[in-house]
Amino acid sequence: MLIALFQPDMAPNVGSMIRLAACLRVGLHIIEPCGFPFDDKRMRRAAMDYFEQAKLARHASWQAFLDWRQTQQGGRLVLLTTRATQSYVDFSFRADDILLLGQESAGVPDYVRAVADASVTVPVAPPARSLNLVQAASMVTGEALRQTSLFP
Questions:
Q1: CA 20 to 30 Å from 51, out of 26, 37, 45, 106?
Q2: Is residue 57 exposed (0-12), middle (13-18) or buried (19+ Cβ within 10 Å)?
Q3: pLDDT classification of 89: cutoffs 50, 70, 90
Q4: CA distance 100 to 77
């Protein structure tokens, strides 16, 4: 199981996501371009001492990520989105799923959404719109790991 971030635009969230991935022992793939300068020094500062523990991969573009996925025979792309109708707690996760999250400011474009094998949402109480990206990823990844007996 791994988490993929599509063109993230907030460096602190990427740092927190690196920490999440390291703590839960899941891979983290960054699909560029990012909305900020992605350099190891900044990410190391944001992720603190978790940077070295994380299994981090970077892809220069969406197409590069898709090419990687095809060569690795990657699992389903499960998009986390506020547009989904299915709650993540009602979804059956698989051990090889790729949990895909979009930009904090805009989500994912339609061409990315079209490739997703499934879409899930984290329900929130109205009038709230959504959780922070890392909070949602934490909840969904935790449930996915629980279902697949992959919790560290």
A1: 106
A2: middle
A3: very high
A4: 6
Residue ranges of E strands in 14-140: 27-31, 55-59, 77-80, 98-101, 118-120
Distance separating alpha carbons of residues 121 and 94, to the nearest angstrom: 17
How many angstroms from the chain centroid is the CA of residue 74? Answer: 14
Q: Cis omega before residue 127 (within 30°)?
A: yes
Closest CA to 144 of 8, 15, 20, 18: 20
Residue recorded with tokens 């988490």: 3
Q: Kindly report, residue by residue over 65-81, the tens digit of the pLDDT.
A: 999 999 987 799 999 99
Other CB atoms within 10 Å distance of the CB of residue 105: 11
List, in order, residues 6 or more apart from 48 with CB less than 8 Å away.
Answer: 15, 19
Please provide residue 71's backbone torsions phi and psi, each rounded to the nearest 5 degrees.
-70, -25
